[in-house]
Amino acid sequence: MGNYILNITAVFQISVFILASYYLILSIFGLYKRRTKASYDPKKAFALVVAAHNEEIVIGKIVESLLKLDYPKELYDIFVIADNCTDSTAAIAREAGAKVFERANKEKRGKGYALEWMFDKLFKMNKKYDAIAVFDADNLVSANFLKEMNSRMCEGYKVVQGYIDSKNPHDSWITESYSISFWSASRLFQLARTNLGLSNQIGGTGFVVDTEVLRKLGWGATCLTEDLEFTCKLILNGYKVGWAHEAVVYDEKPLTLKQSWNQRKRWMQGFADVASRFFTKLIKKAVKDRDFVAFDCALYVIQPFVVLLLGASLILNFVQSNSGGLYIFATSNLFSDSTWKIFSVLQFLLTPFVMLLEKKLSKKLFAFMGLYSLNIFIFSYFLKSDAGLITIILYHLAYLLVVLLMTYMFLGKQSCKMFIWYLLYGVYTLTWIPITIQGILNKNNKEWSHTKHVRQIGIYDV
After folding, report:
1. Which H or E element spans position 84?
2. C-beta separation of 43 from 60 below 8 A
């Protein structure tokens, strides 16, 4: 039985190791940020589309921020889709200065259907637009957004994704965790893919698409993750998604674990649905055309199953360790104890380092996090090899409390809170496992989960 578990664990661990190594290598290329290419004079005409369902609390602020874009006013128009609204969304949007289109369809509900309906109307308008930009109602947009998008499209990209930031990162440990996740992904995966010449992924908001490409391919993306579905369609048709790191869209993150759980479950439902329909097509294109861009996208769409693979590996590791077995990689003779300790420190500090690069974390707070990460070396001098679990836990807690107290004394309450919330980011990460299981099991459930917004944040508040 022990050998059977060992062999299964080996398969899972090797698979996880290969995938983890791929993403690790990919992320390294995101640490470098190239100089921004030469900007182009405003040339492209944009239709800015905001999808809204009962968003009277926030709709005025997104329209306000779009009106303040540093781009010729004659080269863009703002359209708001008041989709099945029962509140004052449409009236507020009109008063703010947007062109409002009200849609009522109880059968075809959701952002994907609303966008498809609006795109069809834009195609038929007398005024023609070079590209269409898509936003969510709770967004705020940086003033340089269209300038950056214009430049990337003048370089030849037909679809470009902007940087999705958070407008409420410090509201709770959940919003902090969301923000850390988005900051990391933008740098280590989106920017990295651009540096390697791969395609980026559309993030659901803050992206622009060439009107003719959209007309040619058709939107047709009406699942719970319409952004991922359209990304797959683009890559299958030979288009890459560009990346505009300086074009920032501020998105409101859920405040509570319950809200976050529901939203991420919806994402995983959409991922599982898209994976079931596009993974094989992407792999076939990758093999037939020797297209590494398609292969990279294929790996991206199976994220739910990668998460489960990781979870299964952890469980099997636990079973194996309690069956008298050995960890395959953790105790490998290929690496010394010191090497593993250094690796653990670097692993802990990678995300804070990215936050430092993105100017989301101060150098002083990074230094305190670095001090805390050295506990793995410090304890080896104070703890005996036969120390009990309770003793180890108490030592770790004592050291953490000392570092947190020093952080509070020297850097203040906000920095101390950010430190604690970064530690809780690990809990947030672990919740992806049960969320993913739910998402896969409910992938055929297309019911849209709407996140309610309860306050207003203006562009000058972020």
Report:
1. none
2. no
Residues 6+ apart with CB under 8 A from 96: 59, 60, 63, 64, 67
Amino acid at 83: D
Virtual CA dihedral for 322, 325, 329, 333, nearest 10 degrees?
130
CA–CA distance, 48 with 438 (Å, rounded to integer): 34
pLDDT score recorded for residue 216: 95
Residue with tokens 């703010």: 96
Q: How far apart are CA 381 and CA 396, in angstroms?
A: 13
Contact (Cβ atoms closer than 8 angstroms) between residue 103 and residue 83: yes
Q: What are the residue ranges spanned by the domains of the chain? A: 1-30+302-320, 35-301
**pTM for this one?**
0.89
Residue 130 has φ and ψ, to the nearest 5°, of -70, -35
Identify the CATH homologous superfamily for domain 35-301: Spore Coat Polysaccharide Biosynthesis Protein SpsA; Chain A (3.90.550.10)
- Alpha-carbon dihedral angle through residues 234, 235, 238, 239, given to the nearest 10 degrees: 60
User: What pLDDT score does 250 carry?
Assistant: 97
Q: For position 109, what pLDDT does the model report?
A: 84
Q: Which amino acid is at 396?
A: H
Distance CA 26, CA 19 (A): 11
Q: Tell me the pLDDT tens digit for each residue of 290-347.
A: 999 999 999 999 887 777 776 666 665 555 544 444 444 444 444 556 777 888 888 8
Q: What is the pLDDT of residue 224?
A: 73
Question: In which residue are the tokens 């010729």 written?
Answer: 72
Q: List the chain residues with pLDDT less than 70.
A: 1-13, 36-38, 310-337, 383-387, 444-462
